[in-house]
Design brief:
217 residues, mainly beta, Immunoglobulin-like, five-stranded antiparallel β-sheet, 2 helices, 15 strands, 6% helix
């Protein structure tokens, strides 16, 4: 109801909320909230906690980094909880080496991924080295190539996927697009244990060749 003004207790007591405490008021015990007729609500209050349909909050004091969960001991209690090393181990199914002095029980290969960009100016139709993929034990590189003709502003773009074991290289080109036809040919060749990405223009003119590589070694 919006107001008690002008109304008698006899006509309004049913709509009043009260705490079920014969000694009066709130205290440290959870007590049901009732209406004036004694009809009990699912809400319980105390001076330190709240419960709804028997779900108590907070079940424990909060600490930094804690999250609220349903207690595994009592399904009708909410509690603050901090992850422990045991929780992580149980979830992963193994013990990670994430602490000082820890170690992996089996060999683990760590792969390094890098992104590099190189811009080369080409003026003739000879084979030009436009990027060197440096590796000692082999690896994989995904290459985005763009050629821009300085006179006509024509563009030629394509992608390449390169794999090498340090002695042999295999390359495939795909997603080849251009505005006025291809401006040249991209390829890859071994140079020692490295891979040179090359470009040969179809016509002699000033061209800017931009190569962006993402490599895993």
């Amino acid at each position: 109801m919006s107001s008690l003004y002008g109304k008698t207790p006899a006509s309004t007591y049913v709509s009043l909320l009260t705490v079920a405490n014969t000694s009066g008021g709130f205290d440290g015990s959870l007590r049901f909230i009732e209406d004036g007729s004694g009809l009990q609500t699912p809400l319980q209050l105390s001076t330190s906690a709240i419960a709804l349909n028997g779900m108590v909050w907070p079940g424990a004091s909060a600490t930094s980094g804690a999250y609220l969960r349903v207690s595994p001991i009592s399904s009708n209690t909410l509690e603050w909880y901090n992850f422990t090393a045991t929780d992580v181990t149980t979830a992963l199914g193994y013990t990670p080496a994430n602490q000082a002095g820890g170690s992996f029980t089996t060999p683990v290969a760590i792969m390094a991924s890098t992104m590099q960009t190189q811009v080369t100016q080409v003026t003739d139709t000879s084979v030009a080295n436009v990027f060197t993929f440096t590796t000692t034990n082999g690896g994989t590189a995904k290459v985005l190539c763009q050629v821009r003709d300085a006179v006509s502003n024509d563009l030629h773009s394509e992608e390449m996927l390169i794999v090498t074991d340090g002695s042999v290289v295999d390359v495939t080109g795909f997603a080849v697009v251009s505005t006025q036809g291809l401006l040249g040919t991209f390829d890859a060749e071994m140079s020692g244990s490295d891979v040179n990405i090359t470009f040969q223009a179809t016509a002699a003119s000033n061209k800017t060749v931009t190569v962006v590589t993402t490599s895993v070694t």
